[in-house]
Amino acid sequence: MPPSPAAPHDVAAVLRLLDSRDLPAAARLAAASASSSPLPLAAVLLHRPLPPRLGYSLHARAARAGLLADRYLANALLAFYVRLPDHLPHALRAFDDLPRRDVVAHSSVLAAFLRADLPRRALLQLRTMAAGGYGADDDVAPSAHALSASAKACAVLRDLRAGACVHGTTVVRGYGDDGVVLSALVDMYGHSGAPGDARRAFEEIGSPDGICYTSLISAFVRNDWFDEALRWFRAMLATDGVYPDGCTFGSMMTALGNLKRARQGREAHAQVVTRGLCGNVIVESSTLDMYAKCGMMVDAHKVFDRMKVRNAVSWCALLGGYCQSGKHEMVLSLFRQMYVEDNDWYSFGTLVRSCAGLSAVKLGKEIHCHFMRMRGCGDVIVESALVDLYAKCGVVEYAYRVFKRSIVRNMITWNAMICGCAQNGHGGRNYFNSMSKDYGIPPGIEHYNCIVDLLSRVELLEEAEDLVNKSPFRDDSSLWAAILGACATHTNPDVAVRVAKKMMELEPQYHLSYVLLENVYRTIGRWEDAVEVRRLMKSRKGNLLDTVPAADGSQTCGGIEYGLELLKLGVVYRIGDGRSTRIWRDNWIPREHNLRPIGSTRVCRLRDAKELGLQPVSKVSVFAAHWAHCSFILETNCAAVAGKLKA
Q1: Can you name the residues that pair with 632 across neighbouring β-strands?
Q2: Among 27, 455, 487, 575, which is most exposed with the fewest C-beta within 10 angstroms?
Q3: What is d(CA 533, CA 640) in angstroms, rounded to the nearest whole number?
Q4: PPR repeat boundaries (predicted)?
């Protein structure tokens, strides 16, 4: 029904009282004039803020006066209930009582669903609007407000397909150049893992403002496109009339911290101070985190000390920085201070990691018990840190107990459990297989590295080789290098030849492959193949046996580096078994390199050549690697390399 005629003086009087913030008097006047017009009631209901009890009484007054059929008053009641938290049922009832639902009513309900953390129902409401509403509804084609709210719902759900549908509806309905809607779409693409689409949506905006730029930069940072975020930040600064705000600088500090750009981070910090954003807790926490990630803990602590307001993010950033820097005692000290000022459980994961770094399993157990009393269980970050703590400290039973009770297990949890089993000799292979079989989590490269190392330690080289060949990382040289190192310790010529050839294919300049392959060929009597490998090694670009620069910049004999690798690969035999002189006789070491085996001398520490009764040639240093049960005389002019073969 059409609205009742309004008494102009009543409406004007109510508005004057609302402007003077005399809300009770305005409500009394609106209730008294309800019989003549519902507009004063609607004006009071639309006022912000309105106490809930006063709104309830006005609703009851309108119901007694029979005014609920008025469209304007009904929409005002709907807007009042939508604004109230935890009043979604009342808002839906007010929506159902509307005589005719227009686009404003539908948009209000859509926003109510989104505010109540029901993004799926918000998208269903948009579909209802696009289909024409309910029965006798007015034209309810989605408005710009409804489309931007729907894009936000897709961002919460990280639903790229639904977001693309909203984008299509935006273009079809003629809002393709609306900056508010397109900014929401940019944010949606950023949350959905499509930064390229976010950039394309941004480029459709005719005159982007600061909010649009901030949405794009945040989308890049959220998807680890840090260099692209820096580029668009510079473009934002070069645009007239567009200025970065606190959210923009917060995203930029995150990008600079991940890129380890300390100098540019200082420049951005100077801009923050110049623009008067130092009191913004988001900017200050991001600045602190940037300094911490760059390893500049003194500057990070200065920012922290100057903060007037500290939240969980700032505390976690400072604790995480000290933990990454290896200053675990500082983490424990700061945690005690934090616990007094801000009793927060978010930093328990960092605290547990510091206990693991200190091997303080007793303190870790105390923190574990305290966390259980505070929070119970279910936090995957803390539980992953606990698994890592107990595994590193050798208490695998505790690690397994925490692992089994974890409701949510991510890649970090699995990796910590597998590494712990590998380091402590437990069944890591079973956990590795259980990841994908029982829980549907595909193993990453770090998990394959752990299981290959585990299999190689127990001489299951063929199984390790087969696992790598069947993995999606079969062309990753780090996996083959792990097997290659095991082949040098455990005798398996067939696997050693295949792995060495694979490494030569993936990393042609990796000299250990050639050394091992030549060693295997000589061991099984394939002398011609050994000579061919030697020739191939010399023919490689840069000659893998040439001299290399020392740490002090002088040139040292390549035989020193070569001797190091021989020691690591076990090519040098035990002294006293009659085979140590074979190194020189069989040309294991090129004759042009100043590396000589001592046939029967056991040296366990650095000595002067005269103690061995040898005549020094220029500067002669004798080194020994007692772990390899062999010794060498190395003729070199660079004493700095001497420490390389000590113990």
Answers
A1: 597, 623
A2: 575
A3: 31
A4: 209-244, 311-341
CA distance 589 to 304: 58
Tokens 């309108």 — which residue? 62
Q: Residue 250 burial (CB < 10 Å; 0-12/13-18/19+)?
A: buried
Give the pLDDT mean for 338-363: 77
| Whole-Å CA distances, 308 to 278, 288, 597 | 10, 13, 67
Q: Which amino acid is at 589?
A: I
Structure tokens of 127? 């579909």
Residue 100: name the closest of 126, 125, 122, 78 by CA: 78
Digit-coded pLDDT (tens) for 91-138: 888 888 887 788 888 888 998 999 888 999 999 988 888 776 555 455
Q: Who's near 572: CB < 8 A, 6+ residues apart?
A: 566, 580, 583, 597, 628, 630
Q: Please indicate, yes or no, if residue 346 is contained in any of the structural domains.
A: no
What pTM, to 2 d.p., does this model score? 0.61
State which H helix or E strand residue 335 sits in. Answer: helix 328-341
Q: How many domains does the chain have?
A: 1
Mean pLDDT of 308-328: 87
- The one-character DSSP state at 556 is E
What's the token pair of residue 378? 């279910």
Length of the chain: 647
Q: Judge residue 600's burial from the number of C-beta atoms within 10 Å of its C-beta, 0-12 exposed, 13-18 middle, 19 or more buried.
A: exposed
Of 341, 334, 336, nearest to 320 (Cα)? 334
Two structure tokens written together for 217: 């930069």
Q: Which two tokens stand for residue 156?
A: 């919460």
The answer to whether 308 and 276 are in contact (CB under 8 A) is no
C-alpha span between 88 and 113 (Å, rounded): 8
Strand order in the sheet with 595-597: 595-597, 630-635, 620-625, 607-608
Domain carrying residue 615: 574-647
pLDDT of residue 539: 75
- Of 379, 390, 451, 380, nearest in space to 415 by CA: 451
DSSP output for 271-319: HHHHTT-TT-HHHHHHHHHHHHHTT-HHHHHHHHHH-SS--HHHHHHHH
Look at residue 552 and tell me if it is in a domain: no
Assess contact for 500 and 522: CB atoms under 8 A.
no
Task: Answer whether residue 579 is part of any domain.
Answer: yes
Structure tokens at 283: 């900017």
Residue where the block lists tokens 């500067």: 619
List, in order, residues 6 or more apart from 340 with CB less than 8 Å away: none
User: What is the per-residue pLDDT for 548?
Assistant: 32
Give per-residue burial for 260-283: e unless 16+ CB within 10 Å, then b.
Answer: ebbeebbebbeebeeeebbebbbb
Strand partners, 623: 632
**Domain annotation covers residue 337:** no
Closest to 502 in 3D by CA, of 490, 523, 524, 487: 487
